[in-house]
Structure formats: C-alpha cells, structure tokens
Amino acid sequence: MRTETLLQLPVFCGVDVLLVGTCSGAVAAALEIRRLGRSSMVIGEMSYFGEESAGTLNLWPESLDRADALVSAMFTGGNSLPAMPCHVKRVLESALLQASVPFMYLARPIALLRSEDGRLLGAIIAARTSLFVVRCSAVIDATRYGVVSRLAGTVLTRRQELPQTLSWIVLSDGAPKGWGDRAEELNPPFKQMPTDGEKAYGAYRLGIDRSTVGNDPLAREHLVRASITSPNVSVTADIIPDVPSDFCATSDLADNPAKLSDGSFAAAPDLFLLNGLLPLTSHGATVLERSDAQVALGRRVGAIAAGSLQEKTDVAGTVNAFTGGGIDGQFRFAPAFLRKTGGILDIAPLAFPSLGSCDVVVAGGGTGGAPAAISAARAGAKTVVLESQHGLGGVGTIGLVSGYWFGNQVGFTAELDEAVRQFNTDYHSGKTCNWQHWQPELKSAVYQRLLQEAGGAAWLGSYAFGVRISGRQVDGVLVSTPFGCGLLEAGSVVDATGNADMAAAAGAPCRVIGADHLATQGTGLSPRHTPGVRGYNSDWTFVDETDSEGITAAFVNARAKFADSFDTSPMVNSRERRQIIGEYEISPLDILAHRTFPDTVVVARSNFDSHGFIVHPVFMVAEPDHDSSLQAHLPFRCMLPQGIEGVIVTGLGMSAHRDALPVLRMQADVQNQGFAAGLAAAMAVKGTRRLHDLDVRKLQRRLVEVGIITPEIATQEDLFPLPDDTIADASREALRSPLHAAILFAHPEKSRLLLRSRLENAQDADGQLDAALILGLMGFPEAAPVLAEAVRSRSWDIGWNYKGMGQFGPSMSRLDALILALGRTREPLATDVIEEKIRQLDGNASFSHCRAVALATALLRDARLARALGNLLRQPGIRGHARTDLRTTIRQANGDPIETEARNASLRELYLARGLYLSGDVAGLGRSILETYSQDLRGHYARHARAVLESSMEENLSLEMA
To answer: Are 402 and 532 in contact (CB under 8 A)?
Structure first.
C-alpha cells in the first residue's frame, strides 16, 4: 500500500551540471564546464577515476593522441606504456582538485528530481544507505551502462550486433592456466619494481566467448570471475568491458564518437550522454575504451551541457523523484552525515522497479558476507549477495590483508583454506606476520566458485541503499547496480556490510563512532607497491564508513601517500565501524572471565590486537597483553538488532563493546560467523521467517556438523552471574589479574562491599590502591581520599602516545588511570589535585596524560580545571592539527604506512577542547576548536566535535564513560 510520508533529504550542494561516472571523459567534461565559468560536481560509483583505463587495465592504447594535456599527463613520457593505475587515478583526481571541482566516490544516483513542469532540479544520491540531494540544472550520464538515462525513462533501442568475444585483462606470472590460445600477451609488460626496473610482469588479454557466460550482465561477471582460479594471476581488471545492449536512437549510428552531431548527445531535456548508449555501432562504442577518445568527447559534451543551461529558479514545495519504477512501500534509509548542507528538500513518496525476489539477500560480499551467501545457498535458499567491489572476500582479498592474524581456523574456515590450497599449493594456514599466505585474486575466485557450485548469485558492483519494511519486518532491500536500481524482495537479510547498513536503514538502534565515543581502531588503505605483491597491511588513518566525503578524501590521500606504487586498494580496511545495539552486547568482561552462553555460534580466538587505545575501565586495572590464547564465545543474540525483524548482522557491525572487537574480528572467525549467519537466515526463511524465534539449539547442531563449534558448546548455559564465593575470592586475590578484575567489574554492587575491606587496609598498600582504583573507576566516592593522595604524591610518568599497528598492552599510564578514577568519583577534593597535575603539563605532553585530565575535568566541571585546560591548550604545539582542506592534506602526505603522529596530535587537541568546552569554556576556545574539527576530513573527528557541540553537557558526560 502506498505511503504518503514525505522523504526529507539534505541538500549536499548545488551546481550547474552534475556529472555521473568514473571514466576520464567525466573528468574532462567537468574541467571544460569549469573553464567555461560554470560549476559542476562528479559522482562516481568506483573509488577512482579512469574506469576505461585503470579500471580495465587498458593501459596500452594504440596510437595514443597526446595532444590533450590531460591525456599526456595520464600517460607521461614517450616510452611510458603501460602507465601505472595509481598514476592514472591520481592525475585525474588531481586535475579536479586543482580546478576546484568537487567529486565523490562510491555513490550513485537513484532518482532524478523534477518540478511539476518537468524542469530538472537535481538528483538523489545514494552513498551506501545514506541519501542526499545534489541540486543541478543538467546531468551528464558518463556511466558505462547509462544508469542515469535509465532512471530518466529514456527510450532505448536494442542493439542488433554485439561483440561475440569479451576481453578481460589480467596480470600474471606467465600465461594464466586453463586459458590456452584465448590469452594474448600484451607488451611491454609492467615492471615488477617501478623504481628500478629489475623485473617485468606479464599482462594478458583473455578472450571470453559471450555464448558461454549468458546474456544476464549481472550474472556474467560472477561466472567469469569464478573461472580464473589460476595461482599465477596476481591482478585482474575491475571492469570486464562490454558494449551496452541498448542505445539511445537520437540519430543514425556512427562508427566513431567524433562523427556524432551535437544533437546526438541529448538523451532527454537537460540530460546528456557520454557513454555507450550514444547512437554508435558496436565498433564505435568500443572506441570509448580509449582514454584519448574519452577525454576529447568529454570536453565536447561538457561544452554542450554548459551551453544548454537555462537561468535557475528555485522551486518551493514537494519535489517529484523519478526512479524508473512502480513498486512502493515503507522504504527506510540511514541518516546522511554531511559537514554542511544547503537545506532540506521534501521529496514525494518513492517507488522503484522490481529486481525480483529471493529467499536470502546478503548485503556485502566480504569476509563475512561471502561465507554467509555460500552457507545460505547450500541450505537450499535462493540467495543473492550484493557486493560493491568487483570481487568477493573483502579485506582478505580486495583489501590485500592476505593472511590470518590468529583466529579459530576450524569449520568453514578450514574448508575454505583447503579449497584455496587445492589451487595455491604454496599456501599454508596459520598465524603469520608477513601477510604472504594466500593469493588474494585466487581466494576471491574460490569464493565465487564455491558460491556458484552452491547455486547462489553474486551481483558485483552493486550495493543495498535502503530497505522496505512492513511493521517491524524487513522484507526487501533497495539495490543500486551498474544497470539501474530497484527493489529486491527477500525473506531474510544478512547484513554483512560491516557497518550495520541494513540494520541502521531499518531504524535499529546503533552505536556510531564519534557520536558515542572518539576511540577507534586504526584504518588502513593499503598500497600495492608492485603487481606481484600478494598482500600488504597498513594502519595510517581513521575513516568513518558512513562519511562519503571522508572516504573520498581517504582514497585521494592514499594515492598521494603511495604515489610511486603500482596501485592502491580500492576499498577501505577499517577495523571498527557502526555497530548495532543487539539483543545482547558482548563485553571484554565476558571474554576475560571466560563466560559461556546458551546460544554460542562461534568461538573466536586471538590476542588483544587493539590498533589504538582502549576505553573499558577493566583495562585501566588489568593490562591487556600479547597472549594469543584469548577465547570469546559469541552469542547468536549479538547478531540480532533490537526493534526489527528479518535482519541478522555479521562482522564488525555485531553488537559488541568496542574493546571486545579486537578478539572477535579476526578473518578466520568472521568467516565462520558469516557462515553461521547465512545458515540462520536460510533456516528462518524455511520456518517462521522470524530470526528472533529461531531454534538456536538446532542451529548449533548444524554448526557442530560443520565443525564451527564443538558438541559441548551446544549444551552450555550462561556462566553469569558468578557465585558469591567466586566474586569474594577475586576480591582477595591479585586485583590486577585480568580474570579477577573482570569478575569484579562484572558484579559491581557485590564487589563494592568486598573491596571496601581492602580499601581500609593501609598495611596492604598495593591492594589498597588497586581496590581504590577499581572502586573509583566504578564511580564510587569512598575511593576518592586514597586516589587523591596517590595522584598528589606521584610525578608525571612517560605516558602513552597514540599507536595503531602493533599496539599491545595499556594505552594509559598508571597515573593516568588514577586521575581518571579520581575524576569519576566526582568528589570535590579531586579538583585541587588534578589542577596541579594539569599545570605541570606543556606542549610536549603525551596524549594519555591529556586524555586523562580532559576526561576528569569534564566529569568534575570546575572553573579552575577549565582555566587550567585552557592554558594548556594555548601551549605551543597543542593546537592547529585539524585537516579540513584536501589539497593541503595531500601536499603533506608521506609514505609511512603506519602513520601515528598526525592522529596523536589531533586526538590530544580534540580531547582537551572537549574537556574545556564541557567544563565551562568562558573564553570560547574549546568551542572554536570543536567547530574547526566539525569540518575535519576524518569523519570520526568531525562527528564527535559536532556531537559535543549539539548535545547537552549531561549527555556528553556519558561519552566514553560507560
């Protein structure tokens, strides 16, 4: 039944012309529009520009015309072929930056906006599940298959002739096995070492018979990629070029784009074509795979679009959105995070075309999603996995982190490892530090093959951008594909986005980094220094996966940082993202106290690989160590969002305290968790369709059969609450023991009474102080006198500065923990002691010292502490570390893959500013710094600064305090 609820969307910006696509022609068109004095923005579905060259690895263009400066820059020098993909991508995005043309990656339009009299007003853009509007007067459709034109309802004509052979370029150490005479070697080869030319790496153009892969364009890529299980293939092109099966018959067909008349480019009022939908023969359409032809055509179309512009007029009231279809319902989307907006538009109710139906939709085909899809398909469910990248496997394949760092390598993970080993004989499982275990492209192909054998489908280059919900039940997802968007109806949805996108879109409560806390594990966006490198792990920034602007900036920064590399990963390897608030949240206390559950579906295993700093009070008493024997029982309830039905969440989006994630997020465990999620989704479809009513014991028995859990786990009950004797024993033993500390923190009221006896025992100085520390961190005021004396009598120690990769152990000193515990008692006697400590700090103060005093100050809210923080913020070196300008950021880029200094400086400044703002901020210094950080390109900083500024002081006192 049609809903009449208006959709209210933020306006990202307003430009004269919106360009959609990631080919070099889109960049050239935007530059031409800018040269003619008009404004434009480019929206791209890939994470880079140069789709027809870097995306297809078509980097040997014949008879390249270098007359255009942009083409010359892409293919620098007379003997530079083939160009490095990273270089091509960087040249194109740098050209836009220098011309001040805004652009955004990993997004697509899902609707065009028109006034009642038909005038184009703009487009609705979907970046994951966040929607926003770009106002414009004209659109240039530079997408390969005409996504925008199809949205507009453009009348298309079936192309009579299509090439019978598709070409796919791969890089391989010798001819790919199994391709025979269908593999044409390209020369010259890529250099293995771009800087010294020691080795060469072969490139091959593989011929694919169209009749063997069918006519379904979404299914075709899945079939092709499942066939390339050659261990000597190290890189495959993202794009398998093909001529669109339709064209817009605006004129007679031409065999070269240069022969088209100006009128041929207008597909509809205010809509211009720059792709294979132009009235071209098949041969003419293939010319668009040449970068020089792309750039020349782009400049021409840009000039035509700029010349067509009419005077803009504002339109009030409701705007009509054209999505190309007619199924309506209660559609929901996640809120967009934008730094600045140009107001809110009221959009009339949406409707979308049908993309069919299935039993299980898996949103995200990464580390958890690919196993989930295989599992659901094996269980007999009609399954479709949606993956925005052009390959399955996520961080372990596309992201280049091609080895396990611990994890429980049993069950499906063991099966998968064996399947990879069959093709890749030098692969061996187990912990490694050099990330050279598996061949990423091969493991991705194995995923494709296992899914194909199970009867599942993979829609690559596609992502879910919203859900349809009936009551509390999600019964379909809105999908954006390279060929258009629509509704895919489903019985169950596995949210394997790693970012809880589906759950957030459906309205489930979630925790978002920045809004709830500032601590986050470091993010990598890895370089591929050479074509032959199997993997590379990095940790050099923070990226908020809900932040489209920040993601775009991260990709640009990565290519500036690793400018001499062959390429960079097309996906962000973030280790912590948005999480659901589930039916249960697993905590570090559960892990440290060896808690069991009646609904355990995975037993994870790792050490505490934190990649950053920790916030849970237990780790301020018991230091996390390098021990790799930690085990975590993961309850099924952690995968079920509160308040909605039909969605199960796997991977980083699970319900877990952020300090529990380092033990839970290892690839081997996420693979098994994803398999369990897919199986549960399939079981629900065959039963009640309610995941919350699933027979968990039956699910566990199936997981025992697969080997993911052992039989005894399927019979266990909840270990908590622990017996009084166990809690009493913990209170009498070494309080810094992780086990004892976890037991006490898990039972605070009982522990309080037990710890008082040690607090009052001055003869046991260490036990007295440890008891005071625990009680203070719990917020109990009786600990204040002992804590105050301990803080007063100690000098500042070394402290801790931010460290990401390789961070084990505590992330604050003993004195830092004592100060924070003292602040949490909220006793007035804390003020004098902490004020004295703040005044002893200067511009060289460590991050952990600044964090401790800032948190304590925010809790105590005393004017004297606020003045002391303000004075510290005015010390040289403390302020001025926000990054709000991308051009400046990339000029400062360095090649460090584990960069920490920039993050440390910003974290220190931001914590101090927050503490000052929440404790008084008479002079407004804290507010000023927070306002600057609200525009920071690193989304967590921007979101956190805004959360502090926009919410009440009492609300912010709970941030990072739980």
So the answer is: no
Q: Report the predicted TM-score, pTM, of the whole model to 2 decimal places.
A: 0.95
What SS3 class is residue 282?
helix
Q: Which residues, listed in sequence order, are joined to residue 271 by a DSSP beta bridge? A: 139, 268
Query: What value does the mean pLDDT take over residues 314-333?
Result: 78
Report the alpha-carbon distance of residue 955 to residue 940 in Å, rounded: 18
Closest by CA position to 460, among listed 216, 695, 193, 270: 216
Q: Which CATH class is domain 724-957?
A: mainly alpha
In sequence order, the 6+-apart residues with CB closer than 8 A to the CB of 616 are: 587, 588, 589, 657, 659
CATH 3.50.50.60 intervals, the chain? 8-155+245-347, 353-521+575-612+637-707
CA distance 809 to 804: 12
pLDDT in tens, 856-903: 999 999 999 999 999 999 999 999 999 999 999 999 899 999 999 999
pLDDT digits (tens, 9 = 90+) for 707-746: 999 999 999 999 999 999 999 999 999 999 999 999 999 9
∠764-770-771 over CA atoms, to 5°?
Answer: 85
Confidence of residue 242 (pLDDT cuts 50, 70, 90): very high
Cis peptide preceding 570, ω within 30 of 0: no
More confident residue, 435 or 843: 843
Q: What is the CATH code for 8-155+245-347?
A: 3.50.50.60
The pLDDT tens digits for 262-313 are 999 999 989 999 999 999 999 999 999 999 999 999 999 999 999 999 866 5
d(C-alpha 212, C-alpha 221), whole Å = 12
Work out whether the CA dihedral 511, 512, 514, 515 comes out positive or negative: negative
Farthest-apart Cα atoms in the chain, separation: 97
**Mean pLDDT over residues 498-510, rounded?**
96
Whether 230 contacts 257, CB under 8 Å: no
What is the token pair recorded at 213?
Answer: 């892969």
Residue ranges with strand state E in 210-275? 233-236, 246-247, 266-268, 271-273
Q: What is the CA radius of gyration of the chain?
A: 28
Burial 406-419 (b: 16+ CB within 10 A, else e): bbbbbbbbbbbbeb
Q: Estimate the crossing angle of helix 901-918 against helix 925-933, to 10 degrees.
A: 130
Chain center to CA of 671: 17
- pLDDT tens string 175-219: 898 888 799 999 888 876 555 456 677 899 999 998 888 888 889
Q: Which pLDDT score, from 0 to 100, does residue 1 have? A: 36
List the one residue out of 936, 934, 915, 937 whose CA is nearest residue 926.
915
Q: Superfamily for 353-521+575-612+637-707?
A: FAD/NAD(P)-binding domain (3.50.50.60)
